[in-house]
Amino acid sequence: MNEVTHRDPPGTSVECRSCKALIVWTVTENGKKMPCDVEAKRDGKFFLFRRPDKIEALSVRSDHPSAEKARLRNQRTHHSHFSTCPNADQHRSRR
What we know:
It is built from two helices and five strands; from the N terminus they run βββββαα. It is α+β, with helices and mostly antiparallel strands. It is globular and about 35 Å long.
């Protein structure tokens, strides 16, 4: 499976189309779609939260109450797949 469809529940992991790593599509605080690596890392930049209709990605530096609670719980963090994919430039928007 290469793309998330409208039938895929939030948090469904899929393969990156170019490098085949497992990713999950998230929505940032700014409402932008962002792929994140499924595997959590100690130095990740985002907390992920499952919501009924999406996976929310909050920056570890966010002042959002959910991010503060995640920091206090030492919640695992994730990287944006744009920062780890060896082929990320192929997927960036051309503006």
